[in-house]
Amino acid sequence: MKPLAAARPPLPFFLDGGADARFCVFHSPSHSPSPDDACRGAIVYLHPFAEEMNKSRRMAALGAAALAADGYAVLQIDLHGCGDSAGDFGDATWESWLDDVARARRWLQRELGDRLTEVPALWGLRLGALLALDAARRAPEPPSALLLWQPVTSGAVLLTQFLRLAVAGQMLAAGSADKGGTAALRERLAAGETMEIAGYQLNAALARALDAQDAAKAPPPPCPVHWLEVVAEAGRPLPPAAARIVQRWQEAGIAVDTQTVAGPQFWATQEIAECPALVERTRHALSALDHAA
């Protein structure tokens, strides 16, 4: 793999304003000597859920910078109610996040104009990968490709894991005991209650949408897929659930490239962690796609 080109400084900005303001960071393709040259492609990055977003900012920035240095235009967007974007997390919905994905793609297409020769790809990490899959299926023009880092395959499983944080908090509180576990919390959400969990306000509509997202049951994506999974030790295969999904997509005729890389679970570690091998493997995967084309 060729070394990285000199990176251009990323451009932070707000897409639109007021209640619609979405904080973005644009990484311009570094290899283009002039604004009129074509770039290798454009990519929208979609971040993980809740605190995983903050844990992953470092890796997202490293990945975006590397892809930009390889000639891709990359747009990172903080979704509605997340990060530095307008709105509260408690007001965010799955639909508002899908709208943000579409807005980000349109911005890239307007910004790059004739330099862009294909529809922007979607790159999602954890829940961002599940969002990218749903956005790809709904889009009038499918993305050129999907880049999935450690994709969450079941929104219901992720929601259960998130609710366990609230259960743990209840059990640690003085004089408190387990009052029905996650099942009781789901009942409160089903009744329309907004709940505070680990500092995040989770509304009932978003909880219902998360429960409905299941990559194992949804139709295959309408474009090629690069699936990269972080594992504890080199040589480990994809988890069985992920492997079954990949097999179903491949049997449906979808080109799916799967790779595993050893490294830390940087989206969940106590301290901010890096997995440089994941970035390098991603560069190799996209470079191989270019050669195949």
Question: How would you characterize this protein structure?
Answer:
The protein is globular and about 60 Å long. It has two domains: 11-154 and 216-292, Alpha/Beta hydrolase fold, catalytic domain (Rossmann fold), CATH 3.40.50.1820; 155-212, no CATH class. The chain has 293 residues and is of the alpha/beta class. The chain contains eight helices and ten strands. The strands form two sheets. An eight-stranded mixed β-sheet has the order 1-2-4-3-5-6-9-10, sandwiched between helices. Strands 7-8 form a two-stranded antiparallel ribbon. Helix 2 (94-112) crosses helix 3 (127-138), helix 4 packs across helix 5 and helix 4 (155-172) packs across helix 6 (204-212). The chain has helices spanning 51-69, 94-112, 127-138, 155-172, 181-190, 204-212, 240-251, 276-292, and strands at residues 11-15, 22-27, 41-46, 72-77, 121-125, 146-149, 195-197, 200-202, 225-231, 256-262. It comes from Pseudoduganella buxea. Residues 40-165 form the Serine aminopeptidase S33 domain. GO terms for molecular function: hydrolase activity. Keywords: Hydrolase.
CATH topology of the largest domain: Rossmann fold
**Rounded to an integer, what's the Rg over CA atoms?**
19 Å
Broad CATH class of the largest domain: Alpha Beta
Shape: globular
Question: Which residues form runs of ≥5 with pLDDT under 50?
Answer: none
